[in-house]
């Protein structure tokens, strides 16, 4: 399910450990890195922190809540990204949300 995706897990909370989250990523075909790389496709975090703010400020990358990874594994498929899964959304993703999701968080399709 995560084939071709490279994940950098910035932080987690008390409900899941970083090793367990990385295990979920690896078991589902993803790759994990310990530092942000040019090939990194997904930034994962539980909360905003100094590191998250620095990455957002410098690279304008989307930062996804770790729950998205857990939910994908639970459902056995890639779950559509929605605002509730986002810690930070860049301008392109915000535009996508505006065009495809109503004010209640439901997709138009």
Would you give an account of this structure?
- This protein has helices at residues 18-27, 50-59, 66-75, 91-100; strands spanning 6-9, 31-33, 42-45, 63-65, 86-88.
- The longest helix has 10 residues, at 18-27.
- Helix content is 37%, strand content 16%.
- The protein has a single domain (6-100), classed as Rossmann fold (3-Layer(aba) Sandwich).
- It has 109 residues and is an alpha/beta fold.
- It has a five-stranded mixed beta sheet.
Topology:
Blueprint: E1 6-9, H1 18-27, E2 31-33, E3 42-45, H2 50-59, E4 63-65, H3 66-75, E5 86-88, H4 91-100
Parallel strand pairs: 1-2, 1-3, 3-4
Antiparallel strand pairs: 4-5
CATH homologous superfamily title: BRCT domain
The geometry reads as: globular
Spatial strand order of the main sheet: 2-1-3-4-5
Largest sheet: 5 strands, mixed
Overall residue-averaged pLDDT value = 94
Q: Could you name the CATH topology?
A: Rossmann fold
Number of individual domains: 1
Low-confidence stretches: none
The number of helical segments is 4
Tally of DSSP β-strands:
5
Q: What is the structural class? A: alpha/beta
Helix content: 25-40%
Q: Write down the Rg.
A: 14 Å
Sheet-strand content, in percent, reads 15-25%
